[in-house]
């Protein structure tokens, strides 16, 4: 008699189910030892556990690779985990500029990136991102091919405006954490992070230089989503 097929129990709790599905697809992601070490160093240093998940990091790497990115800009380094995924997409002559407000976060990130062998490709700039972006614009910096925005949501609209000034036609921009567990649909929501996302959406709606969409996501990081933008000619 044939054996009954093994059936993996499906958790009734949505968060647990989403995390289990992430785990199932983990073999496609193949986080390398440097990625694991980067996450562990950040945790040991007491950094907040708000970095992208491994599958999200892999998505960033794939997107940067698909656009052939040679120059990448990241707004919000944290412990360097997403930075590492993006650096893995770069050619040997590529470069990545990552902006981080907190000096401790920057120090942790630099150590991990150096250990991972990509320290020479990455410049971590410490200071308020608006100031750092303004300095890049003032210096007439060569446009970036791919931009990842994962910083304070209150200033998203300003970050996007400055990112557009540092872009070229065809630049891809990803903005993380824009669904906020669905709170973005509430125009009166008291959370200023939600209002920051809504201001960004208002900016992007019918913007002449951008085409955009937003994808909702679930997984080990809960219910959220990201905006994907392409800069137009």
TrEMBL record:
Official protein name in the record: O-methyltransferase
PROSITE patterns in the record: SAM_OMT_I (PS51682)
The keyword ATP-binding is assigned to this record: no
PANTHER family per record: CAFFEOYL-COA O-METHYLTRANSFERASE 3-RELATED (PTHR10509:SF14), O-METHYLTRANSFERASE-RELATED (PTHR10509)
GO terms of molecular function: O-methyltransferase activity; S-adenosylmethionine-dependent methyltransferase activity
Keyword vocabulary terms for this entry: Methyltransferase, S-adenosyl-L-methionine, Transferase
Stored CDD domains: AdoMet_MTases
Gene3D superfamilies for this protein: Vaccinia Virus protein VP39
Annotated InterPro entries: Cation-dep_OMT, SAM-dependent_MTases_sf, SAM_O-MeTrfase
Keyword Methyltransferase: yes
BP GO annotations: methylation
